[in-house]
TrEMBL record, chain A:
<keyword id="KW-1133">Transmembrane helix</keyword>
<comment type="similarity">
    <text>Belongs to the binding-protein-dependent transport system permease family.</text>
</comment>
<protein>
    <submittedName>
        <fullName>Peptide ABC transporter</fullName>
    </submittedName>
</protein>
<dbReference type="Pfam" id="PF19300">
    <property type="entry name" value="BPD_transp_1_N"/>
</dbReference>
<dbReference type="InterPro" id="IPR000515">
    <property type="entry name" value="MetI-like"/>
</dbReference>
<feature type="transmembrane region" description="Helical">
    <location>
        <begin position="129"/>
        <end position="153"/>
    </location>
</feature>
<dbReference type="Pfam" id="PF00528">
    <property type="entry name" value="BPD_transp_1"/>
</dbReference>
<dbReference type="GO" id="GO:0005886">
    <property type="term" value="C:plasma membrane"/>
</dbReference>
<feature type="transmembrane region" description="Helical">
    <location>
        <begin position="233"/>
        <end position="258"/>
    </location>
</feature>
From TrEMBL, chain B:
<feature type="transmembrane region" description="Helical">
    <location>
        <begin position="190"/>
        <end position="215"/>
    </location>
</feature>
<dbReference type="GO" id="GO:0015833">
    <property type="term" value="P:peptide transport"/>
</dbReference>
<dbReference type="Pfam" id="PF08352">
    <property type="entry name" value="oligo_HPY"/>
</dbReference>
<dbReference type="InterPro" id="IPR013563">
    <property type="entry name" value="Oligopep_ABC_C"/>
</dbReference>
<feature type="compositionally biased region" description="Low complexity">
    <location>
        <begin position="648"/>
        <end position="658"/>
    </location>
</feature>
<comment type="similarity">
    <text>Belongs to the ABC transporter superfamily.</text>
</comment>
<feature type="domain" description="ABC transmembrane type-1">
    <location>
        <begin position="69"/>
        <end position="258"/>
    </location>
</feature>
<feature type="compositionally biased region" description="Basic and acidic residues">
    <location>
        <begin position="659"/>
        <end position="689"/>
    </location>
</feature>
<keyword id="KW-0812">Transmembrane</keyword>
Amino acid sequence: MIALRLVRLLLVLLVVTFLSFLLLNLLPGDPTTQILGLSASEEAREQLRRELHLDDPLFSRYLSWLGGLATGDLGSSYTTSVPVTEALAERLPVTLELLIAAQVVALGLAVPIGVAAARRAGRPLDQALTALSFGLLSTPVFVLGVLLILVFAVKLQVLPATGWTPISLDLGWNLTSVLLPAITLGCAQTAVYARLLRTDLIATLQEDYITLARARGLSPRRILWRHALRPSAISLITAIGLNLGALIGGAVIIETLFGLPGVGRLIVESIFARDYLTVQGGVVLISVGYVLVNFAVDLVYVAVDPRIRRV
Amino acid sequence: MCRRLGWSFWLALGWITLVLAAAATADLLPLPRYDETLTGPPQAGPGPDHPFGTDGLGRDVLSRVVYGARVSLLVGVGAVLLGVLVGAPLGVLAGYRRRATDAIIMGVNDIALAFPALVFALAVVAFAGANLLNVLIVLGVLGVPAWVRLVRGATMVFSEREFVAAARVLGARDRTVLWREVVPNVSLPVLSYAFIGMAVAIVAEGSLAFLGLSVQAPTPTWGGLINEGRPLMENAPHVVLIPSFVMFLTVLAFNLIGDRLRAMTDVRQSNLEPVRRRTADRLPARPHDVEEGVLLQVADLRTHFTTARGVVRAVDGVSFTLERGRTLAIVGESGSGKSMLIRSVLGLTPQAGTLRGGHVYLDGQDLTELDDGQMRHILGTRLAAVFQDPMTALNPVRTIGAQVMEPLMVHLGMKRRAARARAAELLASVGIPEPARTLRRYPHQLSGGMRQRVTIAMALSCGPDILFADEPTTALDVTVQDQVLRLIQRQREERHMAVVLVSHDLSVVAEWADEVIVMYAGKVVERGPAATLFERTRMPYTEALLRAVPKLTDPAHHPLRLLPGRPPDLAHPPSGCAFHPRCPYARERCAAEEPPLFQAETPDHLYACWYPVGTGAGVVETSPEMTGASGAAEALKAAEEAEEAAELTELAGLARSPKSPESRESRESRELAEHETTDVIEGADSRGR
Ligand code: SF4
């Protein structure tokens, strides 16, 4: 079973990397212009193309690129000559911290909100919370970010609007600098998770085993947290995996908005610098990470839901 | 339909129309050009000349927002159209054809979904060139996998429905079936998702624009406006706030419309959404005496639900008593209110929209007066319940041990170790082999019979006085059914408890029950000691139930032969005697007046019927003059024989027999005497015909 999943994972990874490679290579634009400038002679370009193997058949280029990927060599940026892997490795921790912090914020808010709404389903509190999450769901992440900056950085001046302090420099400042971006990114997810949890909990609370738990004289609080939340948590975990795509997309914007030196910002910067190899590396890193996380979610899913667990 | 969509829907539609109209007629509106600088002082706040103020270059913000709407709406609509045009046919194909087609399409689709969409859109737009067409195409294509998935799901649901299957059987060509039957039904979910998809596309375009990767300046875009406004946040926050707000409202409006449309199609959701109104009101109970020395007395118990269809009277004035060591059976068809009666006695009815009335006395203590905490203590220690389906009665994600030990620890204050030992003993006492191992297992690892034993063990764990068993064997194998019932009875004897057994299986009831209550439309229609009730049945409904008992010749696992007619709609029960539309003996009075519970000639036997079966003698209240009981018995016998021969369909027709001329004749004579026996004879007559 696990072996089958691994094979599938490998297959998806191959397709994902190939498509990323293909897509960015088929698009118009000539890297040699980028490197040598518009005024360079045709011979010089020809020379460079040969050096970069740009004239080789696409597939063999893919294979050699894949070989490089396996050894951690994705080439060096045409513009800055920094090895792509190095640039990514430098930026990755920032993005990871942002993503994790955002998930913590999202779940930290979504679980109490979802539970509270489900418990009082149909009553004013539930209606208010449902409306709130609907509103949050309809707020583009950059709009929310701008609003939060306006309130907390410009008006109240309690949090920095932009900038990043690495965790190695000062933990406190690091947390301060990640707080606003994480809240911004997390809020949109909060709405998704809370809505899902609410619907799922309402369904779970109508199950026979919940009625029977009540028939055994267990308190509503105990029933909610011990009996109902765990089955519902399973759908939540799936949602976390599926939502990662949106989260990463959001991270690109958040990093740009708040000036965080993460992978997303690197990609945007490289796009404007026409730095093909770095963009390609970034896209592949994100796609592969996305696939891997979803694979991990599948495994967690199995651990949480004994119905799927192999005996 | 208008009402069902709600005011928010119309408000949202209004907003979208406004934005759409403004964007379409932007050139005609009395606005400065979007790129005209210094139309007023830079960074001026909203005022009469510039309702939305001006930006850093003195450009009119309103004009820029209106022109920006063009890009957003164009991309939103265009991307959705593209997504539908490509995704919907693929989805329909996958959902309708299934098998290989489905596998291939969905395989590709799953891989496509594995790309983080926005990052991809970024890269592609960046290299292909940031213009309207490219943005539209990229966002449209990225939406395709979601469309395929959605349309496939909807198609699958509908192609399983009868009318599609029927069309296929009738030999309609696939294409015809698709266009005539599937497409119209799929269109509402598609429409709903189209609005949500537009919201998604607008946000995505905004994100690209915010990063400077959508339509390039000087054409304004909402995302671009917000990005431009950022540096001015301190001095002129309106430059960033106004486009943000407009964008938020637009996205919200699209989402709202999509959501409302989906709510209309989603039956499941409307079932789960609890009724909004909350009532803690109690219905008044009729005066009654609290009987001394009985274990359980239920007096005039009522449970009504407020639903969209009206008030459902699930339990409507039920009274009975139960003594220690006895088994009381509650019988009736599904929907007769018997399960709800149990939940109502235990106080387990859902709270929202429920009206309760009446009293439940346990050893003279009124349980309906207790607060939640006290009631929980009673539930935990003195009352216990087992439900029909052992597959759903145990929490699938907790171990058997955790579930059996829980009441022991909560109610008896046992420590974990002691509770574990006690739980193992309990499992052993209900006949589960290897109890210690079973404690570590999950419900899905046990067979149905074993699970039901576990639920019984859980119910018995704190030594209850009364066990409420709601169809405890219906979901089980025939071979296991008897074992489980024996187990319950053995426990009843050993613990000297009382058992309330809900069942529609009269052979089970006849074997185990001391007393029987027959329920119809939430009311008790006959009640008495088991033997009397079965031998001297008075109520036509009970008679019909008895006749429906499976015969040995029936195929195994055939729970109940159908009674003719439909169970009553509890939101709108029939007038008078609720059974009259199905009753072969019904006459005018039955539809007009509700029969009270009469005392039969035998002690403790009550029935609610104007023209009871097999009587003549013993009716106290209604008929002073009675004919001999023997005549009635003969009539009953004749009736039964005739019935055996009759087809079900004929039987169903009988409910209408009083309207036929033959019976009108005899009705006159009976109305003179109000004679129960003639009733039976007439029933027999018409049956013979
Ligand atoms: S005879 Fe009349 S009162 Fe008796 S069960 Fe039939 S309909 Fe009801």
